[in-house]
Each structure stands twice: as structure tokens, then as C-alpha cells.
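Annotated sample (chain length 421).
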Amino acid sequence: MLLSLYRMFSGYLDVTITGVAPERLVNLAVQAGMDLWDLRRHQGGVTGRLLLADFWRIRPLARAARCRVQIRHRWGGPFLARRLRSRWALLAGAIFSLAMLVWFTSHIWVIQVRGAEMVDARAVRAGAAQLGLRPGAVRWRVDLQRVEAGLPQLVPDLGWVTVRARGTRAVVEVVERKVERRLPAGGRVDVVAAKPCVLDSVVAFWGLARARPGQVLEPGDTLIEGIFYRHSQPPLRTPYTKPENWPPPPDLAEGLGRAQGVAFGRCFYQHYVEVPLQVEERVPTGRNTTRVVLQAGKREILLKGDRREPYAAFDSQVHVTRLPGWRNWVPPVEVRTDSFTEVIIRQIPQDLAAAGEEAMQRLLERVRWQLTPGIDKITAQRIEELVRTPAYVGLRLTVETREQIGRPRPVAEGIPAAPAP
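Output written by the structure step:
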């Protein structure tokens, strides 16, 4: 890689060596320490590539070997700089576009607030703006730790804050304080499941817990009911009362309010991936050819090369040269240059364990982005083989997490006659 960059920066030439003994000139140049590569023999001579600085050194050797060195193409930085010298507007536009791209990507333009249910997200953004995190702020000038420490002081209803910045987006994750909020008369808010999972634990601070650990939940299932009950009579425990039936649920509804509590569930993320047993490796042989086509409308005129595919297996690159247009008019004439490089395709056995781990790491990155730092966590991960064929192996990736799943939901229903058992 570094050698290729050095050659491109220094400039190099595609040359053709003809004469009495082209091989002798190549040997003399190598003995003199010159860099020659991509050497190919053809009828009448040898073609290859030579550094620009070595072109003047090879001329005395060519006279001694009674050979002639002809330049076919010129590549690299010196020739590009020479062409751009007369196109200063193009160079200035490229530099300006690159500078604008760097400038735009170094700023934060989008601020997302997650976890704000009772707190207004606009208040969180306003507090973050006072601490320097606002749309248009330079990313490396924003002190994320200062924002995390100062935001709960500006917005007292926030108990914990974390800020993550990636690219042009900043995500503010908040956890609200568990405080009682008064509602209008007759108001009721339940705590329901936010995503499908298996309930792990539920603790009701205010209200009545309806779900039980081990229950399979769907989004919207009630976890804590915003109806407050009491016992109409003191419960009486007898010697025949089973431990799982004590204490009995209250039977008298007392009023409505906002249910509060914490619920954790075990959530599962699954992904199916097919891993090929063999992967292709394309190895260049060093042979290449070029085809030049003039396209005028729907008509194609071959200027150089052959219309047939040059090799059984090859890699190709297409370069299109168009005439400059005017306003919305584009000239219907263009020159297309197709470069073909012959390759040999080899089949290499795939390491299933490494491929499965790589797919699992990509899945874990997506899952971690959805979790609340400091509260949710990944508890288990599994890789299972489901399908095996001569061509590929199908793997099922499973990630298990423990997440806080409760979210408030207003309910228009009144007080029922008695709680459900």
C-alpha cells in the first residue's frame, strides 16, 4: 500500500521497450537500482511501468543496449498537478467542497432525547443547549461529561443522564425521578409493557401489580394498574391457607391515580445468517486490456479493443468522458473506456466459527445501541446451527437482555367493581 502511494505521488510511466535485446535493458535497469514492475513480453518488445525519476537514468542504458523506450501513458501526482495548473477553478471547487464536507460532518445537527416520558423533551434540549450541546455545535468542543453532570441540575425531574455522540447526531438518554404527580380528578395512568418479553420482576411503588414473574408479555399488556385498592376487612389467615395465597389481594377500589413502579423483563433478539462454506478469492494474473467505445445516443462505435469478453474471469473498471453541457442540455456523445484485468478465482474454505462470531458482534452492536446504559444489560448470547448444505450453513443468533420495560399509558376507564384475581 505504501509503495503504491509512493509511486502515485512520485509519478510513473507506462513504457514500451523495443530494440535488439529488450531483456538486456531490463537487466541493466534492475542492476542500476531502478524500479520496474508489471513487465509483460509481447511481439516486438517488452511493456512495463517505470518511475518518472528513473526515466532519465534509463536513457544511457537504452543507448548501450541499442533499445528504444517509448512512453505510452503518464500517471501520478506531477502530471495531475500540471493538468490542474490550467484548471484552477476545478481545483478550487474540489478544495472548497472538501472543506465544506469536513465542516458539516464536524458539527452536531440532530439531538435526540430518549427516555423522557413525563418530562418535556423540549426542556431537556433547552438545558443541553445551555451546557453547549445544541444543533450546530462543534462536536469536539462539546464537553459530554459536563452535559451529563449539569443537566439534572437544570431539569430537576431528571435523575440520571448519559449523552452519546456519533457523527452528526447526539443521543441524550434520561431516567426520570420516580416522583408522584397529581392528576385531574378521575385521571388514571397504568404502567404497561413497552416491548414483547418475559417478565422478570415487577415492583409497584404506587398502584397494584397485575403481571407476575415468568409471564409472557406483549406490547401494551398491563404491568401496574393505576387503581388503588384496600381491604374491606382485615385479612384472616388460617392454618389451611397456602403460602402462595397470602396475602390476599385487596377487594375495595379506593381511587384512581398514576401508577408508579419498576418492571424488568427478559427480551430476546434473533437474527438468521447464512455463512458460505467457501469464499472466492480473486487473484490478478497481471494481464490486462482496454476497450474504448464512442457512444452517440443509442449507437456504439468501437474505437479500440474487441467487443468480446477478453478473459474467462476478470475485473473491470469503467471510465466515462463526457462533453461539457449547457444548462439542462447534456450532449448525447460520450467516450467509455473499459479496463479489464484477468483474475484467477480460487475457493478458500470459510472458518465458520470466525464468521459466526463476526455476525454476532454486528448484532450485539445493534442491540447495545437500543439499551439504556447503566440499567439494561446483555445476559446471554447463543449461536445455533439450523441448516447445513454443501454450499452454506444457516446460523441463528440469539441475544438475551434484561431491560426496563415499563412505560406509562393513560386509561379512560373508571374504577371497576373489584380487582381481577
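Annotation: The chain has eight helices and 24 strands.
Annotation: The helical segments are 2-10, 22-31, 52-64, 77-84, 88-105, 121-130, 144-154, 352-370.
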